[in-house]
């Protein structure tokens, strides 16, 4: 457990050391009070490679936004900018009216409000499912062991793993491990959930259970930004679909508009290849 704690402290220190250098804070523009995330003129470069170019997106409370696009289009980088796992090169991102690109942003506090689920599960192999869900609650939110355990068990039940709380990750399927990762994020009581290709590493028969949990979250009103290639999920659950290519938003609209009546030739070509 000491080795795990040391590793967590090391990771936390690395994340906390990330400094946001893109700009000084500026007053939030006049936003609709229902806008929870506002991305404005977002840019991100890695050296000379420009990955995001003038991305502008508003996400409303309770909205499910699905982001599509080919590999290298900037989808995942955009998500990682929203919770500052990547530092924007330019532009502004507002979360609940506050400019998170301000260099004074408390990154750890920000991440308690924005949950993220990755393609890889990132579970600690020597901790049980319950202990994995408890860890960040104890380390970051300073919850008591009793409170963290109660919340962990509650969230594991919600994702259908109430009877697997004491199982080790190696005893769980890939889909079950991903559901533990979702429970871990939800235990922090976030206001927004980001999903970055959460099902792409899973065997096809395990995808359904994870998508089922995500659909339940959508029905409960969780604000979600989802990068995925699961077209069925996008059609059934999304309020809005965004297609990105070359680091910009090429097209956006309702699922019906984007899938059945795409206007941009690049969108048509992409959808034609995955149909």
Uncertain runs are: 6-24
Q: What structural category arises from helix and sheet content?
A: alpha/beta
**Can you write the helix and strand succession as a string?**
HEEEHEEHEHHHEHEHEEHH
Oligomer: single chain
The level of helicity is 25-40%
Q: Alpha-carbon distance between the termini?
A: 48 Å
Strand percentage lies at 15-25%
Number of strands: 10
Q: What about the largest sheet?
A: 6 strands, mixed
| Biggest sheet strand line-up | 6-7-8-3-9-10
Whole-number radius of gyration? 19 Å
Shape type: globular
Mean pLDDT: 90
Number of helices: 10
Keywords: Amino-acid transport, ATP-binding, Cell membrane, Membrane, Nucleotide-binding, Transport
Main location: membrane
Membrane topology: Peripheral membrane protein
Protein name: ABC-type polar-amino-acid transporter
Structure description:
With 275 residues, this protein is an alpha/beta fold. The protein has a domain at 123-189. It is built from 10 helices and 10 strands. It has helices spanning 2-16, 75-82, 107-113, 129-139, 145-158, 174-186, 204-219, 231-237, 255-260, 265-274; strands spanning 35-46, 49-60, 64-68, 90-95, 98-99, 114-117, 192-196, 223-227, 240-245, 248-253. The strands form 2 sheets. Strands 6-7-8-3-9-10 form a 6-stranded mixed sheet, with helices on both faces. Strands 2-1-4-5 form a 4-stranded antiparallel sheet, with helices on one face. Helix 4 packs parallel to helix 6 (174-186) and helix 5 (145-158) crosses helix 6 (174-186). The longest helix is centred in the C-terminal third of the chain and has 16 residues, at 204-219. It is globular and about 50 Å long.
